[in-house]
Structure formats: structure tokens, C-alpha cells
Design a protein that fits this description.
Blueprint lengths: L3 H29 L10 E4 L4 H13 L6 E3 L5 E5 L4 E4 H11 L7 E3 L7 H13 L6 E7 L3 H11 L6 E7 L6 H21 L1
Helix pairs in contact: 1-6, 4-5
Amino acid sequence: MVNRRTLRVVIACLTLLGCLALVVPLAVESFLVLPCSTSQADAIVLMAGSRQVREPIASRLYRDGVAPKVLLTNDGVRADFSPKHGRNLYLVEWAKEDLVEKGVPEDAIVLLKYTASGTIHDAENTRDYVRAHPEIRRLLVVTSDYHTRRTLWAFQRVFEGEGILIEVYPVPDPSESWWRRVLVLYIEFLKYAYYFVMY
């Protein structure tokens, strides 16, 4: 039979674990999620992934006159078949189709090249485009809220010495469950630590 002292220790440990399960994700979230910027830019950079969440924000920012161009990063992933085009489109091509449907003119959308998948490569490909277009001096990068710190870090690292102002626009995902959110935050924290060490 369990004595009272052992029972108290078990209850205290479970309570502590419960508190940590609530507090630690909040601390990780407050570190990863950067504040929103809505200042004027020369181009919006829409990071690949989470299309249903990120694209509506990028299109709204364009329609609100925040920037005259939308640059789409390219993760090199081929997706669904398009009857209109008669082939499977890459996700970046579907993103362009979606943005046009949401009111962004086709000539305001730029599909960036693909070299490799990853935030650091997206930053490098964006830099290559910006170098060829000296009129671009300010970028607003639209991405998922948990991804903002790593995105800003990678872009600032890649654009160091280029004289380009880079800001981020965090997009939350209201459909995300609490447990999914915690998992995403921990994975992103590990990715940020990896970037910090490797790049």
C-alpha cells in the first residue's frame, strides 16, 4: 500500500510536470514569435509552405498597398494535377494561381528559383533576385508566426552587407490544436538551434 508521503511526492511531481507543460511552450513561443510589421516594403516575400494560412495574408498585404511585388520562394515540391495547364504543378505555381485568384496581378508575382529546400536557401535565392533588382531595398517576409525568428535570422545573415531592410510578418494558424502547436514549437526551436550552430 502507498503511504501518504509517497502519494504527496507523486502528486507534487505531477503538478510540477503539468505546470512545466503549460509554461515551457509559452516561453518557447514568446522567443520564436516576433512582432508584426506592417511598414511599407518594396517587395513581399511569401515563404513556401502552409499555403492556406500564409497566402491570404500576403494577398491582403498586396491589396492594401504594402508592396508592389510578391516574391514566392520555391521549395521544389511538385503537387496536384492542373487541368488548365495539363500537368502537375509545383507548389510555387499553385501559390501563384491562388494569389491571382485573390486579386494579385500576375505581373506582380515573381517565382524565385529553386536550389534546395530550406529557409536559408530561400533567403539566398531571394538575395540573388534582389541583387538583380536594385530598386528593392525593403523586404517584408510573410511566414507562419512560429517561423519568424529563424526566418529573420536567416535573411539577415544572408543579406548581411547588402543594405536591405528586412522585416517579418507573422501569420498564426487558428485551426491548430494545442498539442499540435506545442509539437510545432519544439521542432522549430530545434531547427533554430541547428541554424544558429550550422550557419
